[in-house]
Amino acid sequence: MRMAIQGIGVTGAFGAGVESLRNALKSGAGSPKPSSDTSDAGLFYQASVEGLDEFFPKRALRRIDYFSKMTLLSACLALKDANQLDADRSRTGVVIASGYGALKTTFDFLDSYLDFGYACSSPTHFSNSVHNAAAAHVSIQFKATAPSLTVTQFEMSAPSALLSAQQWLAEGRVDQVLFGAIDEHCDVLRYCRQQFFAAGEQGPLQPFLFEQQTAVVGEGATFFVLTPETESAKYAHIDGLKLGNHLVCPVQLPQKDLLILGADGHKECGRLYAKALKSKEAAAYAPLYGSFPAAAGLDLAVAALCLQDRTRYANPEATSTTPQAHQTLETEKISCLKFGPGGDYGLTQLSV
Amino acid sequence: MSAVAPTAITGLGCLSGAGMNLAESMESLFRNERNPHPPVRFSTDHPASYPVLELRDEFKLPLDEQESVYARTSQLALAAALEALADAGWDESSLRGKRVGVCVGTTVGCALNCDDFYRSYKEGAEPGMEIIERFLRSNPAAVIARHLKLDGPVQTVVNACSSGTDAIGLGASWLRAGACDLVIAGGADELARVTYAGFSSLMITDTEPCKPFDLKRKGLNLGEGAGMLILENEAVRGTKKARGYVLGYGSACDAYHLTAPRPDGAGLKRALNEAFTSAGISPQQISFVNAHGTGTPDNDRVEARVLSEVLPGVPFLSTKGYTGHTLGAAGGIEAVFTLACLQRGEVPANVGFTEPDPELAASPVTQNTSITGEIALSESLAFGGNNSVLILGQGDA
Predict the structure, then answer these.
(1) Which residues 135-154 on chain A approach chain B with CB closer than 8 angstroms?
(2) Contacts of residue B254 in chain A, CB cutoff 8 Å?
(3) Which chain B residue shows the shortest CA-CA distance from A115?
(4) How does pLDDT run across A310-341, given as a tens digit for each residue?
(5) B252/A contact by beta carbon, under 8 A
(6) Is B199 left (phi over 0), alpha (psi -120 to 50) or beta?
(7) Does B5 touch chain A (CB under 8 A)?
(8) Helix (H), strand (E) at residue A184
(9) What is the pTM of this model?
(10) Could you tell me if A51 lies within 8 Å of chain B, comparing CB atoms?
């Protein structure tokens, strides 16, 4: 079944709110910063949770970690965008996708017993490190008593979770879904990426250099208010999605759609995009928000904005074969393609 | 929502502290055996010792060299999946060309809580990436799909202790939607020092074998294992007999507290009502309930309250005395047990229960009990306030 996008909330290195993302698309400028004080640490697209106190008193947030704050901020922005901040949410489902979950809190919990012994393990850090804690905070803060789901599937988290959100709507389990995709950065992740990618992440992130490792880590969150198909989707419709494995059965790309790639500078996945694309032209916007699994949610948000604005925004890191200026969108449909390193893919089709 | 069509279950597989496969587990359950003991696979400096239910034996999978790095949770998932596939008459080659989905619930299987690596990192020792690579290659649902070279939707559900139940409910909906022809669905989790430390920090683990629904219950025992079901659409199943049916699924969130269930059980009641509606049946048709029954004071109080209100007089039990609380695996293992008990026409005693709690409005079965009827219910409550319910039907003779 088709789903209608009625609200979008985002936070990332470009700022918070859908207008910040639109402005980043218009300017084409990403803003990675140094990852730490050390000069060799590489760059990092850092998100912000500023503005959350517009929606909640500080007291309500005192035991909520950074991951859940990013989640709550984006969820609030999506509900506000949909003009639903004060609506009854007893039939609103919550679906959250994350590649890694609340990393900082996971390591905070380990700190509690590695530093002070097992008898001093922190119950607060433990309960917030459980993967569905962010979804629980959303449900609690918004009194959303319908089903809640959290999915962790690395790069495929967002498209995979979207399939289940679609099913809830199709079967009438919920009237709408608050669908989000979130990932955060942390020092351990930075260390791991330094080990994996010895050249460091100095930028620029160049998604179309498929054979080169140009990834620069990012973090952020995207939320959508999704309803069953209506005549008046605020942004766009999600027509359908397909999940499979390109190495087992090659993905069939729609010929007429604009294709937005989840390519984010990882050459392990880049080779798959190159193989699937052949000579087909595509867009990619990871240079605006960096490389992280849940960025697939931001790709969907970009597709929705392109459809609403009837504009194909220029690729932030244009190549000789991709448009270097904004153009009128000449198609009614956009497909977002995301690959994981094992050949698994999610293909999500959106239309006006 | 309205009633949905039943989904055929053609294969079952499980392993846990109760047994290394379904047949062994059922024999053990009906002998009322259990073997909780201090953890063997890891140690801590915690002053208290909490018994756990580990797998009784080692298990060996047909993995190639690249696959040998898979984490234990993923290997458990794969072991149960292979047993279930064999039970359903499938092998890797016969799945080729089919759209096969994999939906697996877990907790530990997706958490980057590799404390040996992190300790080394904290000490500035610059640990290698072997443990991280293992983590990145060990997403449980992806491991099953990769091992069997499958093409279809793959999803790892991390809804804490209801993950396995949710994975089965979602997998059935994928079939109804035509997203695939066959789904491997269930849950898997290994015992880990991190969860051992975490649950002890919450003070909801018992230093003795757990006592679900008993007056003197003090908490849960952790366990490990996996339980998997093979779900097939009618076109693929053809004339093959079903081992059972997923008749209904319901889920609702308490929206109340991160770790404690809502005292009035409103979320669980809503999940039950949704499950009954989707199955198109009434509560009177339920022959028994495989309850969540962790043995924690709060969980058992809420569950007994709701069961006495919604399903008065219906026999119920918790199998966690036999398996321990296997977290993300629990819903998968318990769905398998529920179907096997329906087939057998009998449920095992709620081991650990000896003394009724006057505060609880209902008590579980105290001995192996014959049951009549063709429909049973398995329920899971979870951190985050999740409540999930499966209604399962007996298979074809």
Answers:
(1) 135-137, 139-140, 142-154
(2) 139, 145
(3) B119
(4) 999 999 876 656 667 899 999 999 999 999 99
(5) yes
(6) alpha
(7) no
(8) none
(9) 0.97
(10) no
Is the Cβ pair A119, B154 closer than 8 Å? no
pLDDT reading at A73 higher than 80? yes
What distance in Å separates the CA atoms of residue A84 and residue A78, rounded to the nearest whole number? 9
A110 and B115 in contact by Cβ < 8 A? yes
Is any Cβ of chain B less than 8 angstroms from the Cβ of A249? Answer: yes
Q: How far apart are CA B324 and CA B293, in angstroms?
A: 10
The one-character DSSP state at A313 is P
Task: Tell me, yes or no, if A213 comes closer than 8 A to chain B by beta carbon.
Answer: no
Contacting residues of B for A62, CB less than 8 Å apart? none
Domain boundaries, given as residue ranges, for chain A: 3-351
pLDDT digits (tens, 9 = 90+) for B156-206: 999 999 999 999 999 999 999 999 999 999 999 999 999 999 999 999 999
> Is the Cβ of A68 closer than 8 Å to some Cβ of chain B?
no
Residue from B205, B198, B106, B163 nearest A127 by CA: B198
Chain B residues touching residue A192 (CB < 8 angstroms) = 129, 132
Q: Which residues of B touch A133 (CB under 8 A)?
A: 258, 383-384
- Given B4, B139, B259, which is nearest A127 (Cβ)? B259
Q: Token digits for A113?
A: 């017993």
Q: Give residue limits of the domains in chain B.
A: 7-394
A interface mutation test: which of B151, B162, B200 has the most A CBs within 10 A?
B151
- Classify burial at B217, counting beta carbons within 10 Å of its beta carbon; exposed 0-12, middle 13-18, buried 19 or more: buried
The residues pairing with A150 across neighbouring beta strands, listed in sequence order, are: A96
Instruction: Select the CATH number that applies to the domain covering A3-351 from these four: 3.30.2010.10, 3.30.390.50, 3.40.47.10, 3.40.50.1170.
Output: 3.40.47.10
CA distance A131 to B157: 10
Q: Is B125 on the interface with A (CB under 8 A)?
A: no
Alpha-carbon distance of B256 to A223, in angstroms, equals 22
Size of interface A-B (CB pairs under 8 A): 209
The per-residue pLDDT for range A104-159, each reduced to its tens digit, is: 999 999 999 999 999 999 999 999 999 999 999 999 999 999 999 999 999 999 99
Tell me: the pLDDT tens digits for A2-21?
999 999 999 999 999 999 99
Count how many Cα atoms sit within 13 Å of the Cα of residue A62 in the half-sphere of its side chain: 4
| pLDDT by 10-residue block (mean), chain B, 397 residues | 95 98 98 96 90 92 91 97 98 94 96 92 95 96 97 97 98 96 98 95 97 98 98 96 98 95 97 98 98 97 98 98 98 98 98 97 97 97 97 93
Class for the domain spanning B7-394: alpha beta
Amino acid making up residue A332: E
Provide the CB-side half-sphere exposure for A77 (13 A, CA): 27
